[in-house]
Amino acid sequence: MTASAAVRCVLFRAGGERFALPLEDVREVVLPQPPFARVPRSGAAVRGAMNLRGRVVPVLDLAVLVGLPGPSLGERDGQVVVLEGQRPGLGLHVAAVLGVEALTPEAPSEGLARALAASRHGPAALLDAASVAAAAEAHFGVR
């Protein structure tokens, strides 16, 4: 296995675990904008849709999306990480954003996480934005 280059990432917590997304895959981080509009026939991870400066952004609870147990965040709790390049946009409701940090992928992973990396806050799963978006679409019934 060859050494991987460091990737600047947004580091955050969800479901008591640490996750990261490459900075290039994140459009912005915002406070939740409740109330979330209900989305009929959607999966358990779907929080709803929020109005972000006139744009409708579907919001998913990242902890539920990745299968972590525990209580769900309240609508006003945490932050929403809005992914870049998704149309019309996709928001991930997380407990807290810890900051931006250069992470070096250390151990390849499967599923939504492409690798594990050490951060100054402890180990983090480096998420693959395309895989997260695909998993989110499944919760909205999009095929």
Q: Can you characterise this structure?
A:
The chain is mostly beta strands. The protein has a single domain, classed as OB fold (Dihydrolipoamide Acetyltransferase, E2P) (Beta Barrel). Helices cover 10% and strands 47% of the residues. Strands 8-1-2-11-10-9 form a 6-stranded mixed beta sheet. Strand 9 and strand 10 form a beta hairpin. The longest helix is centred in the last third of the chain and has 11 residues, at 129-139. It is globular and about 40 Å long. The model has no long low-confidence stretch (mean pLDDT 89).
The CATH homologous superfamily is termed CheA-289, Domain 4
| Major beta sheet summary | 6 strands, mixed
Number of helices: 2
In total, the number of domains comes to 1
* Helicity range: 10-25%
Q: Give the end-to-end Cα distance, rounded to a whole number of Å.
A: 35 Å
Radius of gyration based on Cα positions: 15 Å
Number of strands: 11
Instruction: Enumerate the spans where pLDDT stays under 50 for 5 or more consecutive residues.
Output: none
SS content category: mainly beta
Average residue pLDDT: 89
Strand order of the largest sheet: 8-1-2-11-10-9
Pattern of helices and strands: EEEEEHEEEEEEH
Spatial shape: globular
By CATH, the architecture is named: Beta Barrel
Identify the CATH class. Answer: Mainly Beta
CATH topology: OB fold (Dihydrolipoamide Acetyltransferase, E2P)
Q: Determine the strand fraction and express it as a percent band.
A: over 45%
List the topology elements.
Layout: E1 7-14, E2 17-22, E3 26-30, E4 46-52, E5 55-61, H1 62-65, E6 79-83, E7 91-94, E8 96-103, E9 105-108, E10 113-119, E11 122-127, H2 129-139
Parallel strand pairs: 2-11, 5-7
Antiparallel strand pairs: 1-2, 1-8, 3-6, 4-5, 6-7, 9-10, 10-11
